[in-house]
Design goal:
- This is Alpha-E domain-containing protein.
- It comes from Sphingomonas insulae.
- The chain is 72% helix and 0% strand.
- Helix 1 runs antiparallel to helix 4, helix 1 packs parallel to helix 8 and helix 8 packs antiparallel against helix 13.
- The two termini are 15 Å apart.
- The relative contact order is 0.13.
Length: 313
């Protein structure tokens, strides 16, 4: 049977790689909102990126201005707080070192390649260089995910994927919540060009523009985007897809380890509830409130997983 600390390292490896990928995607989305949309969002866009990543307090302490260069540097290269991409990749690499023999050569190489993206780099550069940097991070994290899918289907594989699934659910909820934090400029209307730019950018961040067009024929609407990211089983990054993967992996781990309990029950209840969720109900009850409740519940599930597999032991 796998040691608890080994399972913990693999689980956190999955979480940190997924988090680095999310930060890269969020930065790309914010750059597009600030620089490439018909009405740049400016400080509001970068303030929203900090709010979504829950790094506002750290940034205030940092004392930087709400500009692209300063916020991007903080979210990517700043080693002074635990949420930056470089810190996520460093922690992922340290966890990978602790379980080196449990990983395939391809998975280990992908982690090193992602970490080396930041070697001897201390500036993010202009907009083009920023987009190139986050694209490089995305390429390497995708390489890691591909390597994981080629690994032997055993506890190592499942613990990594469990971490990825829990982190991805949190990230998608936070990304969708971007829309709450970015207010429309004065004079712009719901359904207008700027509003559509913002919803489209959210879809681009989860690589779901084509998926949206396949599944919805009545054009871009907030209700459909919300439905896709919350309740569409066809989209791997949706909340329901992440929830169902979590249930499946916990089931596989229970079969192999005999460890099942609180986390399994919480995961099954969440997946069943999400399977019945409809966008109209979410909008009526308040999207921001719904997503904040989901984020809290996901955190509770994370804690239950730690207790069930004795990660602290």
């Amino acid at each position: 049977m796998m040691l608890s600390r080994t399972g913990s390292s693999l689980y956190w490896l999955g979480r940190y790689i997924e988090r680095a990928d999310f930060f890269a995607r969020l930065i790309e989305a914010t750059v597009r909102l600030d620089v490439m949309s018909s009405r740049p969002a400016g400080e509001v866009a970068w303030s929203s990126a900090l709010a979504v990543t829950d790094t506002e307090a750290d940034y205030v302490a940092h004392g930087g201005a709400l500009t692209q260069s300063e916020v991007v540097h903080f979210l990517t290269l700043d080693t002074g707080h635990p949420g930056s991409v470089i810190r996520c990749l460093d922690r992922a690499r340290n966890n990978a070192k602790a379980v080196r023999t449990a990983l395939s050569r391809e998975a280990w190489t992908a982690i090193n390649r992602a970490w080396l993206v930041f070697e001897r780099r201390n500036q993010v550069g202009d907009t083009t260089q920023t987009l190139n940097l986050v694209e490089a991070v995305k390429n390497e994290t995708r390489g890691f995910e591909g390597a994981v899918h080629q690994m032997l289907r055993n506890q190592s594989h499942w613990f990594i994927r469990l971490g990825q699934a829990v982190e991805r659910a949190d990230n998608t909820a936070r990304l969708l919540d971007v829309k709450y934090h970015i207010l429309l400029p004065a004079g712009e209307t719901v359904g207008g060009i700027v509003d559509r730019d913002q919803w489209t950018t959210i879809l681009q961040t989860v690589s779901a523009v084509t998926a949206y067009r396949w599944l919805y024929s009545d054009g871009l609407t907030p209700a459909n985007v919300i439905d896709l990211l919350i309740a569409s089983r066809e989209l791997p990054r949706s909340l329901v897809a992440s929830a169902e993967i979590t249930v499946d992996i916990l089931g596989l781990l229970a079969e192999r380890t005999g460890s099942h309990g609180e986390a399994d029950r919480m995961a099954r209840m969440r997946a069943a509830r999400l399977g019945k969720t409809r966008s109209g109900e979410v909008i009526a009850s308040g999207l921001h409130q719904y997503l904040q409740a989901f984020i809290r519940e996901n955190g509770q599930l994370h804690e239950a997983i730690g207790r069930q597999f004795r990660f602290g032991v």
